[in-house]
Amino acid sequence: MENGQLTWIAGSIWNIADDVLRDVYVRGKYHDAILPMTVIRRLDAVFEPPREAVLKLSKQLDESKITSRCKK
């Protein structure tokens, strides 16, 4: 990613924060929410493609009454 694109994206995130979060958080503290929200959104985007396969497998496990889903 080019530096100009990164700067534009960062600026967009801060502009959204200014518009949306300013009165929700104490002034000057809403930046504490930006990084976690960005990380959560990125994880959501990364896991989007396999989401249907995971939901299908979960349904199959539920129907088989398998309660332990963790590898040991």
What attributes characterize this protein structure?
72 residues; mainly alpha; 3 helices; 67% helix
Summarize the structure.
The chain is an all-alpha fold and 72 residues long.
SSE order and pairing:
Blueprint: H1 3-20, H2 31-47, H3 51-63
Q: What is the average of the pLDDT values?
A: 82
Determine the structural class based on helices, strands and strand pairing: mainly alpha
Describe the sheet with the most strands. none
User: Nearest-angstrom radius of gyration?
Assistant: 19 Å
Which ranges are low-confidence, i.e. pLDDT below 50, for 5 or more consecutive residues? none
Helix content: 55-70%
- Percentage of residues in DSSP E strands: under 5%
* Total number of domains: 1
Shape: elongated
What's the β-strand tally?
Answer: 0
End-to-end separation: 39 Å
Verbal overview:
With 72 residues, the protein is mostly helical. It has one domain (3-63). 67% of the residues lie in helices and 0% in strands. The chain has 3 helices and no strands. It has helices spanning 3-20, 31-47, 51-63. The longest helix is centred in the first third of the chain and has 18 residues, at 3-20. The N and C termini lie far apart (39 Å).
